[in-house]
Write the structure tokens for this entry.
Amino acid sequence: MYCGRFAPTPSGRLHLGSLLSAAGAYLRALSQGGECLLRLEDLDRPRCRPEYKDSICADLKTLGFTFSDQVLVQSDDLNPYQEAVEQLLSTGKAFVCRCSRRQIRERPCQCRELNLPYKKGRAIRLDCEDVPRDFYDERLGSLHLSLLPDSLILKRSDGIFSYNLACVVDDVRQHITEVVRGSDLISSTPLQIYLYHLLGRTPPKFLHLPLIVAADGGKLSKQNHAQPVLERFTPAEAVRLALKLLGQSLDDLQGLTPSEMWQQAASRFDLAAIPRQDITLNLQPVPQLTPAPGGNDCNQLTQ
Ligand code: GLU
């Protein structure tokens, strides 16, 4: 059975970019008659705050999403990540590294040859020499990544397990059959596929969604798209906007609850209608705590 997931990092409230990933993963799963799970990727303690876990779950509920099964919170149990690191060390492809981040940036790491013992304050890295550079994306077709790092961090020197390691461990234990996420993570995909192989697992399928970029091509700022989506839009407006940005039909959504809107959209989900390029969205900044004039700039965007 098809099993997808939405895996936000609780480093802030749900913003439009995350909503687009959630919508893509959710619609794809429902349209395949499958289920979609929720996972909170909160291992990077300095970036994540407990209140954001709660607010993300509350916002998703308000936006009409119903995820199957229990929410997996990564920080609840670190053992699966440690076990995976040990398995990777035993393949000889992972190694203990004593380089600082600066040294890694300045010159190739030579630690693999040194066979160093693990100690507090040392990192564990994976040699990336044999990572295959080609993979298939269910939406974009065959992709080739020419630039890959020499090595990949698995466990940081402060003891925190890396995103790539934890993501693979969890996609395996949640039995994910297809990963749907933003294309900012395309460069992680070959590394993750390689981790599946080293761990003796079959990789899921991958499907990357377009990103939302600011009108000047620059980074999203808190004043525009990265603003919490429910601070700016009503739930129904936010759902309509997400559907519109994903190229989906907005017909016959009038009067439906957000949850019914997702069901309706999933019943006619059109993968080919999702834009191939990143999406430039020209929302005017809204000063924080001040309602938008008229309160529904979403309608202006969607009609
Ligand atoms: N936690 C990641 C993020 O919020 C997404 C990870 C994934 O979907 O693989 O950007």
